[in-house]
Hints:
UDP-N-acetylmuramoyl-L-alanine:D-glutamate ligase; 4-stranded mixed β-sheet; 14 strands
Amino acid sequence: MPYSYQTQTIQNLIIGRLQREYILPFHGSARVNQLGGNLPYTASGMALWGGKAGLLSRINSDYPLDWLKPYEIMGFDLRGIIKTDDHFDPRFFVAYTPPDKTSYENPLTHFAERQIPFPHELYNYEADTRRYCSKTDYQPYTFRVTDIPRPYLEANAAHICPVDYISHKILPSVLKAGMIQTLSMRATDCYMNVTFWEDMRNLIADLSIFMLSEAQALKLFQGRSMDLWDIAHVLASYGPEYIIINTKDGATWVYDREGNRRFIVPAWPITLADPTGGLNAFDGGFLYNYRESYDIVHATVCGNLSMAFCMEGSGPNYLLETLPALRDARLHALSQQVIYL
């Protein structure tokens, strides 16, 4: 355990990756060797609304745990941060070039173009461009059943961030065997394709909520359907009560299987600075507010606002600087714009 804890009840659980972030945003300063990964973005999206959770991730032994201190101060439980001797590369690089170009490779070129000193930590960096998820091989960051601290299984709600296929295959059944009542998961790019079509039913059967992007939905259903509502209906028939599709224009489409209803929450207009972590921030804001109110529409509005606040700045800590009055004003305004179908 990186820190000591007093006895506390864990209501929410977030499972995801911690990384070292190197980001050249559309606007603003470069982020060099700072806290990153989908786990802290999801946690910040939840903290924006006053939520907290137990955090679960696998890290290298030299990962700077002090980066997580602000989350501990806010009441997040870090006992699930597992140090492993298995080596894996925690670095993540992305460069955004106006108007809408994104690059995950050749960091030296991008730093040079912006006349920013190249960070020595990025020497020999190679982007993880693999497009295939193994159905059998564990990665160093793949979660094991033994990684989950026993108190975490007493949580009421859990969210699984994008990790890998095997993690997404084994975790839902393990979590549902505990006290978890609401289980959400965001799709991982590498298995959202026709190769995994036959595996999808079992993969999401135990979920309460399955979250995916428009691009992932269309790639999975390539040759079968291009209608997002049809796609949502099929995926919901596999088990999840809600299917949430985040579209490329920033809106969120929600299909409610049990209520047999559909609605769209439009994007909150922003000046885009850094898209990194936006969908993860959505997930944290959504899950916390859904568990607080069980109002799917309210939760989706909160999720959209977490995403918007995240992408107006850069890095997971940017969300933590949001003024509550501004958050609440946007909540009131966006709640009036929901489209019911």
